[in-house]
C-alpha cells in the first residue's frame, strides 16, 4: 500500500513537471512561429500566448474525459478557475500588493464573468453536451476576435519579460517545429501522468473522480499560472499576474470545456450544481469586485482569497 502510494505520488509530481515544461516550450515555439509568419507581437501576446498557457487544462481535461472520467474534465476546470483566483491571485497579492490595470478589468473582466455564467447555465440541465460545447466555442471565437481587434488598435501592448517577441529579429525554422511537437508530447505525457498519479493517490484515500479533478488535478494544471504570476508579482509586473488569471479563466471554460464537450458529453452532478458552481461564481464576482472598487489587490485581500480557497477545499472533504 505504502509502496504503491509512493509510486503514484512520484508519477503525480512528474506529471506536474512535464505539464509546466511543456507549456513553456509551447508558448515559445508557437509565438516564434506566429511572428515568423507575419503575425504582430501584440496579437500573439493576447491570443497565442494566452491560449497556450491553458494547454495543461486542455490536455488534462480531454485526456481525462476520453480515458478516465468526464467528472475529471469538469472538476479540473471548475477547480482550476477557483484555484486561479483563490490560490494564484491570493498568493501573488500576498507576495506584493498589485495595482489593477483598467484594460484588463474592463476589457477582459466581463468576458471572465460571462464565461463563468455560461458554464453554469449550460450545466443546469445535468449535462454539457456537443451543442453546449459549440456555444462555448462560438463565445471563444467572439472573444478572440475582440482581442485581435483591440491588438490591432494598439502596437504598444506590453508583454512579460520571458516572452521575447520582436518582429524585426524573430525567425523560425525546423527547430521551432520540433520544439512545438516536443511540447505537445510533453503535455500529453504530463496529462496522463497527472491523471494516473492523482487518481492513484486520492483513490487510495477513498476520494472520487470529481474531488480528484477539483483538487489535486486542478492544482497541477494551475502550476504554470501560479509560477508565472508569482514571478510577475515579485518583479512588480502586476498586470501580468492579474491578466494571466483572468485570461486563463476565460480560456479554461470557453476553449477547454468547449472542446471536451464536443468530443464527449460531460455529466454535471447535483453536488456540482449546488456547491462547486456557486463557489466558482462567488470567487469570480469577488475577484472582479476587489479589482473594481479598490484599484489594487492588497495583502489583506490576497489573504482573504487564499483563505477562501482553503475553505473551499476543506468543505469538499467527506
User: How many angstroms does the end-to-end distance come to?
Assistant: 22 Å
Poorly predicted sequence stretches spanning 5 or more consecutive residues: 156-163
Total number of β-strand segments?
Answer: 4
String of helices and strands: HHHHHEHEHHHHEHEH
Number of domains: 1
Write the CATH architecture name: Up-down Bundle
CATH superfamily caption: NCX, central ion-binding region
Mean pLDDT: 78
* Total count of helical runs of at least 4 residues: 12
Identify the strand order in the major beta sheet: 1-4
CATH class: Mainly Alpha
Helix % is: over 70%
Structural class of the helix and strand makeup?
mainly alpha
General description of the model:
- There is one protein chain.
- The protein is an all-alpha fold and 318 residues long.
- It has a single domain, classed as A middle domain of Talin 1 (Up-down Bundle), CATH 1.20.1420.
- The chain has 12 helices and 4 strands; from the N terminus they run αααααβαβααααβαβα.
- It has helices spanning 2-36, 41-46, 48-52, 55-67, 70-95, 102-123, 130-153, 174-203, 209-234, 238-263, 270-294, 299-316, and strands spanning 98-99, 127-128, 266-267, 296-297.
- The strands form 2 sheets. The chain has a two-stranded antiparallel sheet.
- Mean pLDDT is 78; it is low at 156-163.
- Keywords: Membrane, Transmembrane, Transmembrane helix.
- It is found in: Membrane.
- It holds the Pfam family Na_Ca_ex.
- One of its GO terms (biological process) is intracellular calcium ion homeostasis.
Amino acid at each position: 500500500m505504502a509502496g504503491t502510494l509512493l509510486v503514484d505520488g512520484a508519477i503525480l509530481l512528474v506529471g506536474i513537471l512535464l505539464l509546466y515544461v511543456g507549456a513553456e516550450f509551447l508558448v515559445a515555439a508557437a509565438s516564434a512561429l506566429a511572428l515568423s509568419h507575419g503575425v504582430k507581437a501584440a496579437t500573439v501576446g493576447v491570443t497565442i500566448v494566452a491560449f497556450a498557457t491553458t494547454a495543461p487544462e486542455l490536455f488534462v481535461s480531454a485526456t481525462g474525459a476520453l480515458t478516465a472520467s468526464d467528472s475529471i474534465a469538469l472538476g479540473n476546470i471548475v477547480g482550476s478557475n477557483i484555484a486561479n483566483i483563490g490560490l494564484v491571485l491570493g498568493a501573488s497579492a500576498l507576495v506584493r500588493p498589485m495595482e489593477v490595470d483598467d484594460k484588463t478589468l474592463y476589457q477582459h473582466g466581463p468576458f471572465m464573468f460571462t464565461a463563468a455564467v455560461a458554464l453554469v447555465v449550460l450545466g443546469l440541465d445535468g449535462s454539457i453536451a456537443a451543442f453546449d460545447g459549440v456555444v462555448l466555442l462560438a463565445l471563444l471565437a467572439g472573444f478572440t476576435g475582440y482581442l485581435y481587434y483591440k491588438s490591432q488598435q494598439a502596437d504598444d501592448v506590453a508583454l512579460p519579460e520571458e516572452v521575447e517577441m520582436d518582429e524585426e529579429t524573430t525567425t523560425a525554422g525546423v527547430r521551432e517545429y520540433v520544439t512545438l511537437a516536443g511540447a505537445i508530447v510533453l503535455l500529453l505525457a504530463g496529462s496522463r501522468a497527472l491523471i494516473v498519479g492523482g487518481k492513484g493517490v486520492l483513490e487510495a484515500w477513498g476520494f472520487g473522480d470529481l474531488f480528484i479533478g477539483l483538487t489535486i488535478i486542478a492544482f497541477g494544471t494551475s502550476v504554470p499560472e501560479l509560477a508565472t504570476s508569482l514571478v510577475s508579482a515579485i518583479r512588480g509586473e502586476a498586470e501580468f499576474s492579474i491578466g494571466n488569471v483572468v485570461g486563463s479563466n476565460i480560456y479554461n471554460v470557453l476553449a477547454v470545456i468547449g472542446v471536451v464537450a464536443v468530443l464527449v458529453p460531460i455529466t454535471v452532478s447535483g453536488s456540482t450544481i449546488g456547491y462547486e458552481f456557486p463557489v466558482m461564481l462567488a470567487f469570480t464576482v469577488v475577484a472582479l469586485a476587489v479589482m473594481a472598487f479598490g484599484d489594487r489587490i492588497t495583502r489583506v485581500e490576497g489573504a482573504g482569497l487564499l483563505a477562501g480557497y482553503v475553505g473551499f477545499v476543506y468543505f469538499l472533504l467527506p
